[in-house]
Amino acid sequence: MGTGSRKALPMHFKTMVQADVPQGRNGRHKEIVSIILKDLDRINDGSALKVPLAELADGKEKVRSALNRATRKAGRNVATASDGTFLYVWNVAE
Fold first, then answer.
1. Model-level pTM?
2. 62 lies in which domain range?
3. Residue 22, in any domain of the structure
4. What is the average pLDDT score of the chain?
């Protein structure tokens, strides 16, 4: 095929350099999940984190789901519980 086969048809979408395409998934809960995981690395066995529900803008269910995805991906075993004020998160001994 020659160069004449590509006619100047309008593009439907904009283009960008592939090197500038973001890699990986940075969801809206990444920051809080990263903080929780870092704190879990630092607590002693038998301790749990108390995350105030007021700090979870999207609610505990969505943060719990994001935390579950992140811990499964990292091969970590954590558990959660909650009451009306806090989300509790702790490492589960294997």
1. 0.71
2. 29-94
3. no
4. 87
